[in-house]
Amino acid sequence: MSETGAAAQFTLLGSAGDPIDGADPRLAELYAYPDDLRRCWVRGNMIASVDGGATADGKTARLGAAGDRAVFEQMRYAADVILVGAATVRTENYSGAQVPVDQRGARQARGQAEVPPIAVLTRSGDLDPGSRFFTHTEVTPLVFTCTARLHDTRTRLGAAAEVLDASGADPDDVDPAVALTALADRGLLRVLTEGGPVILGLLIGRDLLDELCLTIAPYLVGGAARRIADGPGEVLSRMRPAHVLSDADGYLYTRYVRSR
């Protein structure tokens, strides 16, 4: 065996302890945000096939199952705000977040609003005010667009959304750091981003992603399925594993936190 192989140490993950179901308080503890935040903590939640595909037939929903849905909901319950891109809103047919009564009480006890708003990053502002995203929600969405499209977007969406300027130095572009500062000013520090790949790639490239929760679905999709992150920027950000869960359907639920 090579010196490298002899030096490596491995741990075989097993089923130690009692199973954790979706209603178990331990699941909430696993996905709790850090205490005493002073800035936005950005968590990404994505799903991918074993061979790295972020979608099947163009949608993430084809890859999911009951366990993935439970983890997805738990992360939403823990967040102050959910951050997505306009393409995800359109492709996944988004509506507002749904929070059951018991979780609303838990959120209130943590000093959070009962239902987290959804914030959208969109350079073009091209969103349909008649879509489910605006008509099936308890909380007015936040739409972050660029300076150049601000007036047009406000005119198009009207009272359906609160439209905010998120341009930095370039009035034709959206700067995610500006959007995060605006969220922090509102006390929305626990940020959950559900993508898509362009938004996640943008956050990674700007060194704004603090952790990634990646569900690995037990499928091969092949073809030209996209990765979970996309964009021109390339970085090498060191992450450390916080936990790995598995279920009877063969899914893996990983959580990685950025090493400081």
UniProtKB/TrEMBL annotation:
Transmembrane segments: none annotated. It holds the Pfam family RibD_C. Keywords: NADP, Oxidoreductase. The keyword DNA repair does not apply. Residues 41-252 form the Bacterial bifunctional deaminase-reductase C-terminal domain. GO terms for molecular function: 5-amino-6-(5-phosphoribosylamino)uracil reductase activity. GO terms for biological process: riboflavin biosynthetic process. Pathway: Cofactor biosynthesis; riboflavin biosynthesis. PANTHER family: 2,5-DIAMINO-6-RIBOSYLAMINO-4(3H)-PYRIMIDINONE 5'-PHOSPHATE REDUCTASE, DIHYDROFOLATE REDUCTASE FAMILY PROTEIN (AFU_ORTHOLOGUE AFUA_8G06820). Signal peptide: none annotated. This is Bacterial bifunctional deaminase-reductase C-terminal domain-containing protein. It comes from Mycolicibacterium phlei DSM 43239 = CCUG 21000.
